[in-house]
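Issue 218. Parser rejects a valid record. Input:
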Amino acid sequence: MKAIGFERHLPIDHPEAFRTFDLPVPEPGPHDLRVAVEAVSVNPVDTKVRAPRHADPDHPDNRADPAPRVLGFDALGVVDAVGDAVSRFQPGDVVFYAGDIGRPGSNAEFQLVDEAIVGHAPRGIDPADAAALPLTALTAWETLFDRLGMDPDGADAGTPVLLINGAGGVGSMAIQLARAAGLKVIATASRRESQQWCRELGADVVVDHFGDLSAQLAEHRLESIPAIACFNDLDRHYPAMAQLVAPQGRLASIVGNKTPLPFQELRDKSVGFFWEYMFTRPRFDTPDKGRQGEILDTVAGMLEARRLKTTRHEALGRINADNLRAAHRALEGGHVIGKLTLAGFDEQ
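Output the parser choked on:
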């Protein structure tokens, strides 16, 4: 099968940052689906996994292990074969999923994925539009409802939630899921086009995360926020998060910190801080791993009912090394709105 990958962790403009490989078609294990991949999207995690480990391109630390490394953590495709213990799917089913960071990814004609973390693809939705969603939908859902403790069925309707970086892939889904849950959605975005994107997705209030968040929110009579999620640059935004969070509130972040955070500031308010990492369930084979498949089925139903819409902002063409390089370059530039997708493999 054809697969796009790399043998060394290299800067994106290096000619060998991505190459096309001919690899064996994988055989499914007992709980695996083998999926014929039709469309993928590219996420910041792809760029982080591919990034150089050392300034010298030939340094041993830059060698992929095992090589070649195939990335891709979002896909839509058709089930081609199933393992002996599979019960939820059969060949011919159209599925979508975010995969497992410890296994070969979706930038290949065929991919193995555990059925527990797979959802039935939404019907009537363009394959690339659906492929844009699994990783960010799962991350947004787990952030809002598992980590911040909001109720997805409306029991917390009217409760303010602050989403820092609302125009990114995760933020774009979080705005919609929070809106569907009846929450009062406050999103941050810095550029005019990204602010408009947040409003179109359903944000009630949009403020500039490069400005004084407290002052901007005070203008909207929002001075104490029970739930705050950070989807970008935790070090920069943590001081405002600690100031704005309500007593007994919750903070969550999908990005790590580069410097120590003064958590003692949260103590007097009895505030909880939570990390969200979408790959935790598959990576550690947690007993509730199957929740990811259930969440994706729910998201698919919401898409079919037009309660959610795709966050695909740009289609970059077919799945090949050049287009993957373009996607990584755009994401590393830091100004991507929504998601970037690719669909179909080149015949040659």
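Fixed in the parser; the record now loads. The chain has two domains: 2-133+288-343, 136-275.
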